[in-house]
Amino acid sequence: MGGNGSGGSARNQRTIATGRGVVVGNVDADTLAGNFNMIRPDGQHVIIDAPDPHENVYSDEFNGDVSSIAAQGTVIYTYASQLPYSNVPAKCSFRIVGDATGASILTTGYFTDTNSLGQVVAPESQVIAGLQQAVNEGVNVVSESYGYGALPGANDDLVAPTNVAMWQAGVVVVESAGDSGSSGTVEAPADNPDGVDVGGTNDLRLLAQADGYTKGWEDDNVTTLSSGGTTPLGDVVDLVAPGYGALAVAGINQQPAPALPTEAFGGTSESAPFVSGAAADVIQAYRDTHAGATPTPDQVKEILTSTATDIGAEADQQGAGLLNIYAAVEAARQMPDTSQTRSSTPELVDNPTQLDVQGAGGSTVHTSVTLYNASSSTEKVTGSYRALGSETSLGHPVTENVSAPSGPIPAQGATAAAPIHFTVPAGVSVLDADMRWPDPTNSDDNILAFLLTDPAGRLAQQSYDYGAANYVSCAGVDGGCSPDIQHSTVEHPMAGTWTAQVLWANGRGHVQSPPDTPGPYTGTVTFQASGQNFTASPASAPVTIAARSWASVPLSIALPRAPGDAPESVQFTGPGGLESSVPIARRTLIPSAGGSFGATLTSSVSRGPGQIKTFYVNVPRGKRDLDVSFYAPDHAADDPVYYYLFSPADLTSTNVTSGYLEVTATDTTPTSGNPTGSASLIAPDPQAGLWEIDVMQGATTDGTRFSQTVTGDLAYNQLKPVTATGLPTSTSTIIDSGSSVPITVKVTNTTNHAGYFELQPSNNDITGGDTVTPEELAPGTTGTLKATLSPTAAAGTAVHGTLSVIDSTDFGATEPAIGFPASYSDFHDFAYAYTVGS
User: Fold this and answer.
1) Which comes out higher in pLDDT, residue 838 or 481?
2) Most buried of 44, 96, 534, 552 (most Cβ within 10 A)?
3) Coil, helix or strand for 648?
4) What is the DSSP letter of 411?
5) Secondary structure letter of residue 675 according to DSSP
């Protein structure tokens, strides 16, 4: 595990701070209270207040969390005993050391349930109760390696306001971004700005040695599984930390066979506790030089992000960069009112830690960043904007035949296709590698992954496929599904000839588990390599900042013309290697008058829903209806796309019902009856203000293309008048008990797809006809919907109700983000009233 944030800095950091005196909270920490590696050399327990201080129970990733924070390194293990499928020599040994060995750990509750996917879970109420108890017991930092997946809409759970309350109470909250891939997948509650949101990077030493890559390995690329992209809230991850290819301390009792004292560990569930331990180090370092005072959560976040090391990834993937614990504790010791007279290294501390800006296309947003010179000498700082450009193909896509070789399977997985070679020219900023295979079943048996080796023969990157059952339809596959697509990046790729090895593997690199068995797929696999380059432009003139002083740097941020998200960063640099990066989440609004917009969906790792692309529009007052049409030309039954429309009222913090957001309108491209992939969202009488539109990829793809482009068009006042005959509108109208009144409604389908229109009454007095069986209407056609009103209330009762005309094109399908059938567009609502006669 180790506390190596960047370049061996943890070894130096431990000479300054170990998190001594700081309490870190983590789920299920008590289960490891009696493990030898969680007991200090003087006999003190790292995990405090455990009901049973001798407990040593396996708790899956939560063992890894605790290990990342404060494992003591008191136990020596051998690789040969802990990696049963590797070829590491028996003489090689290792220790597991957390990055805050002096910190104490407190349990923040327990995850005691198991869901249908076999994942350990807990109800929100149980999670919140555990957090509250830890706050009452004096926790300083809380590590949250859990979440709800990426969700459209701003208010997706009740843990987010709990985290905000803890933050305001002085507790640093660190959250894992998620393990769902690179774009638009940051899970809740890590999409909340009040917290430190952490993505993951590679540490490939263990994998390279276990699999026999004698030429070496590359570290510190963004790991393939790490969630990234701009969230619906307009936020990006704050920073990244190691999140792939580690070993952690594990409890023996209740561990599945073979029971080992360590576990293979990775994901942003490793990254978050890594940063939690670093936060403890920062708090101790600040206290040591500020008369025992504790920094605020905002200060801790500013220190951690400002001192992170830029790794050359896009701003919405790396945030401010890779955790650098040594730089962070040095900066903490030099913050205002410090007792330290001299500093060994210059550091900048930025406020705010990221900029979230939005506006009209082509406009400029004026803002500023305040920089603190955490140094004992004057520094001159220059700012420049940096954004990643579009992809350029590095040669043609290569297609190979897939086969399943016989014989022993190596630890990394059996070879599935011939190796693919491609050339990366000098000067490429980011290498993009994509692979697809058209498995019509999306079967979990047919999981492929690729390994990239650079021109020097070093292991550089590995793709990833969660490949497990999930709550998104997997084209009828039981027991799991594969997305049939893989995507990975390498930052600062070496120029020369690269090699992609195609393997029967899920890309997890868990060398404690047996290698994946080749599946029955016998089709083709296609690989494509592309390159991207950063573009830079001036952001500010040189600014001179006196020692231990602040300076405000004005910024003018240009928004692209195309609606949607376009992240960039502002890089502050100075002589002697001084640097700091502030990510900028830029969001261009759809014009208020309406217009077109587009979303490109690429990879999925089949862990929950796929990528989410968010658009905002300021809807003017006085519009009769808001109409949004979508067209997904590559739509397929096993490549679903989901669409959402949220009103300003939906997005208020008070509009949460049973943990789910009330959706104004949703729709999906159905798997039948809509082969063109067209869909529409309609909101009558739209509220004026900022509306949110989300385009969400399903868990799977059909493997026939590398990306899918969805185009949208926003307009107003498209609905034709909807008229009703026979519907009473006043309580002065008397309708006798036992009578039947025919109701007819004329409606025109103004969507871009064939719709199934029906009547939906609020009461049980309107039945039959098109309240039961929808009527299909082609785009632009008019139909008549019929029903019957028969009073059911007692004589003399004044009845009030609503009769809605809805397009229930895909009503009844379980929608993946909010988890229940809620897919329809409301065309019109008729208020009706009458009095029941005798």
Assistant:
1) 838
2) 96
3) coil
4) T
5) T
Q: In what order do the strands lie in the sheet with 364-373?
A: 348-351, 364-373, 550-558
Number of H helices, E strands in the chain: 10, 50
Is the link from the previous residue into 189 a cis peptide, with omega within 30 of 0? yes
**pLDDT confidence bin for 286, thresholds 50/70/90:** very high
- Residue 246 or 635, more confident: 246
pLDDT above 90 (res 751): no
d(CA 508, CA 651): 37
**Is residue 571's pLDDT more than 90?**
yes
Report the distance separating Cα 731 and Cα 835, nearest Å: 5
> Residue 243 has what pLDDT?
95
AA letter at 696:
M
Rg (CA), the chain: 28
Within a 10 A sphere around the Cβ of 707, how many other Cβ atoms?
Answer: 15
**Token pair for residue 333?**
């010791």
CA distance 135 to 141: 9
Shortest CA distance to 354 belongs to which of 104, 600, 555?
A: 555
Q: Where are the alpha helices (DSSP H) in 613-664?
A: none
Q: How many residues does the chain have?
A: 838
Nearest to 311 by CA among 508, 530, 493: 493
State the number of CA atoms in the 13 A half-sphere of 97 facing the CB: 16
| pLDDT tens column, 661-699 | 334 444 444 444 444 678 888 888 899 999 999 888 877
> What mean pLDDT comes out for the span 357-371?
98
What value, to the nearest 5°, has the Cα angle with vertex 688 and ends 684 and 690?
110
Q: What is the pLDDT of residues 311-335, one digit of tens each?
A: 999 999 999 999 999 999 999 999 9
Nearest in space to 615 (alpha carbons), one of 652, 645, 639: 645
Least Cα distance to 634 among 563, 712, 702, 695 occurs for: 702
Q: How far apart (Å, rounded) are the C-alpha atoms in residues 244 and 226?
A: 9
Does residue 385 sit in helix, strand or coil?
strand
Residue that the structure tokens 């058209």 belong to: 438
Of 347 and 155, the structure prediction assigns the larger pLDDT to 347
Q: Left if phi > 0, otherwise alpha if psi is -120 to 50, otherwise beta: which for 542?
A: beta
Find the Cα–Cα–Cα–Cα dihedral 598, 638, 268, 693, rounded to 10°.
30
DSSP 8-class letter at 45: B
Token pair belonging to 505: 């593997």
Q: How far apart are CA 231 and CA 185, in angstroms?
A: 7
